[in-house]
Design goal:
264 residues; alpha/beta; D-Maltodextrin-Binding Protein, domain 2; five-stranded mixed beta sheet; binds glutamine
């Protein structure tokens, strides 16, 4: 009991010290630390989704991370006089990380869906995408109906998985796009369903693959940045920059730059 009282007294004393510093503005160190913390936007991503986010081999925009989304994140922070920090995690963990405050925003080629909207708020959309099928060059698959009895590989938690499961097809889900593509290359899967821009990157990296589209089966998707529910302050900052980057062509330029520069 006595110990507890002592601890409580210490805590109270510390609180007083902190409060007096904060009140008089004399504690420069404290003020600087707080400012530094407040001027960082922590973005969560899953750097397994080229050309939007990937781990760079040649020195990236922010640390080792590079891609369209990383450049957008940096621009959002800088335009607001802040710094972007990138927190790389599994795609599946991003929404929870937002909800528990581990990250401020999720930028991960993330499609706006009604289900996700139940747990987070989305920015204005910044990119239009669609799911496509990657198959071997000699495959006869021409539409989504053709893959009904094929071995389908998807990536866990991606909208591609949702589409295939909604179609009622059987599938195997993988943690990474590259794992699913390797399964196809090695002949263990017949088709990988994934977002178009990422599919284009994979077929340029791997010989003998092609993309098959089916716009009737796969609807258009919109990528947006997610924030915790109700975080309108950050959402306003994000939307202002996104709108500007869309209007002045920066996002289109980034999309073109990363699609081309990804080929060696
Ligand atoms: N657009 C897809 C989704 O939102 C994939 C995103 C990603 O893998 N980063 O599920």
């Amino acid at each position: 009991m006595k110990k507890l009282t002592k601890v409580m007294a210490l805590v109270a004393a510390l609180a007083l010290v902190v409060m007096s510093f904060a009140g008089c503005g004399a504690a420069n160190d404290t003020a600087t630390t707080n400012e530094a913390a407040a001027s960082t936007i922590t973005f969560g991503t899953n750097a397994e989704f080229p050309p939007f986010e990937f781990v760079s081999t040649s020195g990236g925009v922010i640390d080792q991370f590079d891609g369209i989304d990383i450049a957008i994140a940096k621009e959002i922070a800088e335009s607001n006089g802040m710094k972007a920090e990138i927190n790389n995690m599994e795609f599946d963990s991003l929404l929870v990380a937002l909800q528990n405050g581990q990250i401020d925003a999720a930028i991960a080629g993330m499609t706006i869906t009604d289900e996700r909207k139940e747990s987070v708020d989305f920015s204005n959309p910044y990119y239009t995408a669609t799911q496509v099928m990657i198959v071997k060059e000699d495959s006869e698959v021409a539409s989504a109906a053709d893959i009904a009895d094929k071995k389908i590989a998807v990536i866990q938690g991606y909208t591609g998985e949702v589409c295939i499961s909604d179609m009622g097809y059987k599938y195997e889900s993988f943690k990474k796009g590259t794992d699913a593509v390797m399964e196809l290359v090695n002949g263990k899967a017949d088709v990988v369903v994934i977002d178009l821009a990422t599919a284009e990157k994979y077929i340029s990296d791997n010989e003998g693959l092609k993309i098959v589209k089916d716009d009737n089966a796969f609807e258009e998707e919109q990528y947006a940045i997610a924030v915790a529910k109700g975080n309108t302050e950050l959402l306003d900052k994000i939307n202002t920059v996104i709108d500007k980057m869309l209007a002045d062509g920066t996002i289109a330029d980034l999309a073109a730059k990363y699609a081309v520069s990804s080929e060696e």
